[in-house]
Design goal:
The protein is mainly α. The protein has one domain. It contains nine helices and two strands; from the N terminus they run H-H-H-H-H-H-H-E-H-E-H.
């Protein structure tokens, strides 16, 4: 539940802020006629995101056991790569995101409402499609999908609510600190998804070490227990983790977190 809540909150707030920036700019510049194309683009992006989530779930359910293992493992690797790229991108682009979106609106004006809708669609779809893929792979790591679904809904609801309050200037949120902290949390969750992907490929026989466990505590902690589900969904802990899973998990965390938390270089004028 906690992991899906964090994913939905982080990605949902990013999307809400993007929509808020676009809407605020066209209202401020007295271009309210562009609101309809913007909301149309947002609606299409949301529909595409839900469609991807449905496609992933349906495809996974229809596959054979080995096909499902391949599909789950591959989507896990893709999700980790995408999320890793996105947290670094947001860290780098957060300061100029507003100006970038304003520029896209200005450039799209000459092409008409369809270009405005496309700009809104691609801005939101980037977050929505990433969320659908990452949530799907995170769902595979937990045993209790019902609680994970609750976390997803609560995270999205809070993201929309916070986005609305920020748009109306009802609250002030230190977005730099928020995205830094949630970025670290997403990297930790991504490490668990990566470990799960390795496990699936080990069961396929494509990665060695299946059955060579760093620990196996399944005799007194069930995988589907509350503690097991919480640990699996947050930090990627599995009751029976292979040495290769542990190595990949630790290597990813140590490298990515070090790079992510590394202070940006300050340019000095000579």
């Amino acid at each position: 539940m906690l992991s899906t809540f964090l994913i939905a909150l982080r990605e949902g707030l990013e999307a809400a802020l993007i929509v808020g920036i676009l809407v605020a700019y066209v209202v401020k510049t007295d271009r309210r006629n562009l609101l309809a194309p913007i909301w149309s683009g947002v609606a299409l992006a949301l529909a595409a995101s839900f469609a991807l989530g449905g496609f992933l779930s349906f495809t996974s359910a229809e596959l054979s056991e080995r096909g499902e293992q391949f599909f789950a493992g591959t989507t896990s690797f893709l999700a980790v790569g995408l999320v890793t790229w996105m947290v670094f991108w947001m860290k780098r682009a957060a300061r100029t995101l507003r100006d970038e979106l304003h520029g896209k609106v200005d450039n799209a004006l000459s092409a008409g409402p369809l270009a405005i809708a496309a700009a809104a669609f691609f801005a939101v779809a980037r977050e929505g499609l990433e969320t659908a893929l990452f949530v799907y792979t995170n769902f595979k790591t937990v045993a209790a999908t019902s609680s994970a679904s609750v976390g997803l809904v609560l995270g999205l609801a809070l993201a929309v609510f916070l986005g609305y309050l920020i748009y109306n200037r009802a609250i002030k949120l230190n977005l730099t600190k928020f995205f830094t902290v949630t970025g670290i949390a997403l990297i930790i969750v991504a490490a668990g998804v990566l470990s799960y992907g390795v496990h699936e490929y080990q069961e396929l026989g494509w990665i060695p070490g299946d059955g060579s466990y760093a620990w196996d505590i399944s005799s007194f902690m069930a995988k589907d227990s509350i503690a097991g589900s919480v640990l699996a969904g947050t930090i990627g802990f599995d009751v029976n983790t292979s040495w290769i899973q542990l190595f990949v998990w630790a290597a990813y965390l140590s490298i990515v977190l070090r790079l992510y938390t590394k202070p940006a270089k300050v340019k000095t004028l000579v």
